[in-house]
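User: Quick sanity check before I run a bigger batch. Here is a single chain. Can you write out its predicted 3D structure?
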Amino acid sequence: MTPPPDGAYRNQNTAEGHDALLKLTTGYRNTALGFDALENNEAGMENTATGYSALHSNNEGYSNTATGSQALFLNGGRRL
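Assistant: Done. Predicted structure follows.
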């Protein structure tokens, strides 16, 4: 998803940072703060990523929380 202005994300998603939630399609209630945070998330839900590339590879995982630079970087699926 091309990042819209602050507050304009659909499905109760929040993103702040270059390419944060970039590929979001159907996911909901995600929070991404930081450069590339949750960048590849498409259908994941209720994830929180804070930091550079946190949860970067997550695509459809849910209920994950990653805090810190590259935290859970390779997590691509379900909750850990």
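The chain has a mean pLDDT of 89.

User: Great, the batch can go ahead then.
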